[in-house]
Amino acid sequence: MKLILLGPPGAGKGTQAEVLTKKLGVETISTGVMLRAAMREGTELGKLAAQYIEGGKLVPDDVVVGIVKERLSQDDCKNGFILDGFPRTIAQAEALNDAGVEIDKVLSLEVDDSVIVDRLSGRRECKACGTPYHIKNKPVPENGKCVCGGEVIQRDDDNEETIKNRLKVYHEQTEPIKEYYAAQGKVVSVDSEGTVEETTAAVDKALGL
Ligand code: ADP
Ligand code: ZN
After folding, report:
1. Each residue of 130-184: pLDDT tens digit?
2. Nearest C-alpha to atom 6 of ligand 1 is from which residue?
3. Which of 34, 35, 118 to mutate to test the pocket of ligand 1 (most atoms within 8 A of CB)?
4. Is the CB of 53 under 6 A from ligand 1?
5. How far is residue 94 CA from its own chain's centroid?
């Protein structure tokens, strides 16, 4: 299964990806997780990415396309993968296509803008492995650490100002790729405004799992 997860920031892509990875037995490739790892490590890529991420802007297409192509060429992606956070522009979708990658389905998680600011301000994330948590919907384990033992933090870009910018960028640059894949008959849409479990059930049904 070669699956793309699509939806605004805070739609629950990372949360559903975690469930789907186990069910489908394929890796999740999250550009957000990869870019933040590079930022923590202070690599050239990380320094470049930080300039965009902090303002809620998109990292340039050529940069992101490069890291995704390299990741998809690894052995553990041979039998399928889940893409979370990529493609995010029409140009990225075209680059994926030009690289000969054939996507099976695009799962669109639908959430209204009014729900998102609230969701993102309660979001937390493991600094070590990227596992998502939420103060209300998916609490951090009682010892305050991630299941992997890592430190759980709030992302710098989950502040109100940056969230508004990310939403604007989503509607302008990312949402059009839904049409791009719909034209290929690949889009399945799921309501993601309910609980994690409700969305998981809806996803299973939509994907026939
Ligand atoms: P969210 O879906 O909550 O916005 P992500 O972790 O997917 O969070 O992305 C965080 C930030 O990383 C984005 O705002 C953007 O700056 C950058 N980013 C992630 N994926 C891409 C991509 N495919 N193209 C460009 N920038 C990206
Ligand atoms: Zn962790």
Report:
1. 999 999 989 999 999 999 999 999 999 999 889 999 999 999 999 999 999 999 9
2. 32
3. 35
4. yes
5. 18
Provide the pairing of β-strand 123-126 with 2-6.
unpaired
Q: In the prediction, which pLDDT does 114 show?
A: 87
Sequence-separated contacts (24+) of 111-114 with Cβ below 8 Å: 111/7, 111/8, 111/10, 111/11, 111/12, 111/192, 111/193, 112/193, 113/8, 113/167
**Where is 106: in which H helix or E strand?**
strand 105-110
Judge if the beta carbon of residue 11 lies within 6 A of ligand 1. no
pTM: 0.92
C-alpha of residue 102 to centroid of ligand 2, in Å? 31
